[in-house]
């Protein structure tokens, strides 16, 4: 248990850094790759059917942009996600690998296929003029790319769905006889896949509309054609993802549904859930206003409307991912593992036997609490159980969260982290002495602005001093 190195991310914290990388990745993977491949396949097909050279050229220019975004930003942030999750929560990745190993492996193969066909489609586009058999072949490359991109999303969505609704998998005997099918066909997989598929297409259409505006400065006829085409796709997708979204929402556990408004804004504004409604309505209006005016009056609508539409879409996507991650709290895998990597089933045992005792990367002399090592033991407890969501001084700073408390009230608060007031926090895990050690450390950093290793490690830690 807890046999991974401890890595603390000062100031920004793990949550923020991960969210930044992951949301950037979603913009690109869903827009430039999954949705982008589908809409560009569609416009290439129309160009072939109508022998429309201009539409063919415009589609190529959009593909060029998507290609750069997918291979540069998409690939880098994708690797970033792997590094982040391995640092933040290796225990959760371990659990997911045990359940999804082969599916993830297949996903990696399919991702390679995706990248090869993207390259092939893009690089052979120009050498396959309209009206030649080579063009029909080039179109098939695009189709393969689109299918492969969608397939990678389907697998990742199954894993994300599993983390929120492990469903019947929890009833199977793990690890001896896990029900892999129940994990894959977890209740939110299909609805969330439908939801993501249609908003990816809509989002890619919004990106394509902005790019089309830029690429058709001297050709308003072509601009009109592009806006009508991508605008129709965008507007047609809205009812579809709303429908799948409602079905998806329906699968969430009640406790997660209860956190929705808080997830949409910050906790300090939670007393005003109407702010979250204003935010959603505002962002949706930005998207609709841009899309409808570009569709209805393509020749007269200024670029700023396309930019507004794009920012509105990014806001909505970012909000969706943020809320989805927030409402899963206090779990990383619902009902199975807490956000800080402690398995729910292990809590009673660890409360009795001690948490630090099982922490392989904590030096042995801090694995049981004594009056001399108390502060340092408390620091390890903080790092292992709280730094997933808190920093000492930066974002969601623990120091400001405990202002005005003394050691005793901190001790009491730690005993009720998972109370109805803060249901998004996992309970503290460990013995009474460990809870005292954490309270002592938190009280120490509350009073002292700067941590001194000397204070934390008193004279009795010979191994550590080496
Ligand atoms: C899953 C994420 C998560 C973990 C893990 C977590 N917290 Fe929190 N904690 C939060 C959030 C979110 C808030 C609310 C911040 C705000 O008010 O905006 C919070 C608030 C708090 C507060 C203030 C509570 C109040 O009533 O205002 C305290 C104290 C606190 N955390 C202590 C801890 C301690 C100690 C640990 C480790 C044992 C811990 N937290 C672990 C997410 C977490």
Task: Tell me about this structure.
Residues 375-442 form the Cytochrome c domain. Pfam families: Cytochrome_CBB3 (PF13442). The chain crosses the membrane at residues 16-42, 62-85, 105-123, 144-164, 197-215, 227-249, 275-296, 303-320. The protein is mostly helical and 466 residues long. It folds into two domains: 13-338; 344-465, Orthogonal Bundle (Cytochrome Bc1 Complex, Chain D, domain 2). It is 68% helix and 1% strand. The protein is built from 18 helices and two strands. It has helices at 13-49, 53-88, 90-125, 133-164, 180-184, 189-215, 220-251, 254-258, 260-264, 273-296, 303-327, 347-353, 374-385, 398-401, 407-414, 432-447, 453-456, 462-465; strands at 331-333, 337-338. Strands 1-2 form a two-stranded antiparallel ribbon. A hairpin with a 3-residue loop joins strand 1 and strand 2 (337-338). Helix 6 (189-215) packs antiparallel against helix 11 (303-327). It is elongated, with a radius of gyration of 26 Å. Heme C binds next to helix 14 and helix 15. Residues 266-268, 329-330, 339-340, 385-386, 388-390, 396, 398, 401-402, 413-414, 417, 421-422, 424-426, 428 line the site of heme C (HEC).
Please write out the topology.
Blueprint (H helix, E strand, L loop, with lengths): L12 H37 L3 H36 L1 H36 L7 H32 L15 H5 L4 H27 L4 H32 L2 H5 L1 H5 L8 H24 L6 H25 L3 E3 L3 E2 L8 H7 L20 H12 L12 H4 L5 H8 L17 H16 L5 H4 L5 H4 L1
Antiparallel strand pairs: 1-2
Helix pairs in contact: 1-2, 1-4, 1-6, 1-11, 2-3, 3-4, 4-6, 6-7, 6-11, 7-10, 10-11, 13-16, 15-16
Bound molecules: heme C (HEC).
Heme C (HEC) binds next to helix 14 and helix 15.
């Amino acid at each position: 248990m807890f046999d991974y190195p401890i890595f603390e991310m000062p100031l920004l914290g793990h949550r923020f850094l991960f969210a930044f990388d992951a949301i950037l990745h979603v913009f690109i993977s869903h827009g430039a790759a999954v949705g982008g491949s589908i809409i560009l396949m569609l416009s290439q097909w129309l160009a072939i059917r109508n022998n429309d050279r201009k539409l063919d050229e415009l589609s190529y220019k959009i593909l060029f942009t998507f290609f750069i975004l997918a291979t540069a930003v998409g690939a880098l942030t994708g690797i970033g996600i792997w590094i982040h999750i391995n640092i933040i929560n290796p225990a959760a990745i371990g659990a997911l690998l045990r359940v999804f190993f082969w599916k993830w492996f297949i996903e990696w193969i399919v991702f390679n296929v995706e990248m090869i066909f993207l390259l092939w489609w893009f690089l052979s586009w120009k050498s396959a003029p309209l009206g030649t058999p080579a063009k029909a072949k080039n179109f098939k490359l695009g189709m393969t790319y689109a299918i492969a991109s969608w397939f990678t999303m389907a697998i990742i969505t199954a894993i994300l769905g599993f983390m929120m609704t492990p469903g019947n998998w929890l009833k199977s005997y793990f690890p001896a006889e896990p029900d892999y099918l129940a994990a894959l066909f977890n209740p939110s997989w299909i609805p969330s896949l439908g939801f993501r598929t249609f908003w990816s297409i809509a989002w890619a259409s919004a990106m394509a509309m902005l790019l089309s505006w830029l690429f058709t400065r001297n050709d308003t006829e072509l601009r009109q054609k592009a806006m009508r085409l991508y605008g129709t796709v965008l507007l047609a997708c809205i009812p579809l993802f709303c429908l799948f979204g409602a079905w998806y929402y329906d699968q969430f556990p009640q406790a997660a549904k209860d956190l929705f408004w808080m997830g949409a804004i910050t906790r300090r504004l939670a007393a005003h859930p109407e702010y979250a409604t204003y935010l959603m309505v505002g962002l949706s209006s930005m998207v609709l206003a841009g899309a409808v005016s570009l569709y209805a009056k393509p020749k007269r609508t200024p670029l700023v409307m396309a930019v507004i539409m794009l920012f509105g879409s990014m806001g909505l996507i970012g909000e969706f991912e943020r809320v989805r991650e927030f409402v899963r709290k206090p779990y990383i895998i619902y009902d199975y593992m807490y956000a800080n990597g402690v398995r729910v089933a292990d809590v009673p045992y660890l409360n009795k036997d001690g948490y630090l005792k099982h922490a392989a990367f904590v030096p042995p002399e801090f694995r049981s609490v004594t009056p001399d090592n108390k502060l340092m033991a408390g620091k390890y407890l903080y790092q292992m159980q709280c730094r997933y969501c808190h920093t000492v001084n930066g974002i969601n700073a623990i120091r400001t969260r405990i202002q005005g408390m003394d050691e005793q009230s901190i001790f009491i608060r730690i005993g009720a982290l998972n109370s109805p007031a803060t249901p998004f926090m996992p309970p503290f895990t460990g013995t009474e002495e460990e809870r005292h050690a954490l309270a002592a450390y938190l009280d120490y950093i509350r009073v002292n602005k700067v941590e001194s290793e000397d204070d934390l490690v008193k004279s009795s830690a010979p191994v550590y001093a080496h």
